[in-house]
Amino acid sequence: MPEAFPFTIPSLLRAGKSRSQPAKFSMADPRRGPGYKQETGTDVPVFWDVTFVFGPDEAVAFQLWGTQKLNYWIDDFVMPIRTEFGLLDHVCSFLPDSLVPATEDGPLFRYTAKIMARAQLIPDGFKDAVDLIIGLPGWSVWAGYLDETVNQAMPLD
Length: 157
Description:
The chain is of the alpha+beta class. It has helices spanning 56-69, 124-128, 130-135, 139-153, and strands at 3-4, 17-20, 25-28, 36-39, 46-54, 77-83, 86-94, 102-105, 108-117. 25% of the residues lie in helices and 34% in strands. Strands 1, 2, 5, 6, 7, 8 and 9 form a seven-stranded mixed β-sheet that branches. The protein has a two-stranded antiparallel ribbon with strand order 3-4. Strand 8 and strand 9 form a beta hairpin. The chain starts with a strand and ends with a helix.
């Protein structure tokens, strides 16, 4: 099991990350006729440009975690990351081309990095309700009422 991100130091800032993801397909550009799409694989990693901001004690803990627990940032780790679906635990790794450069800003230390997660996570509850979520405007307002109606007022025996 990968090492967990320490709960004793702050995780990612909400405004301090951006996500990108490569396409799951390529586009062929033939000499004649329309282009066509071809699936390139099923596993599509997710990349985040992240920023951590720590006080001096937290910066020491972060450096020790990365160098001692993650084998100098090489090993995978589990980190909760806020997405559209809430706070979800992702298995991540630091990418070597952007390995945690530090900037000292007064009493704060800022670390930037690029991390990769194995895949974009979508919880099963959302997968099960795709048509309802897409087809019902304001679905999140109705979700609690629908859940209560379906599971309590009209249970299947």
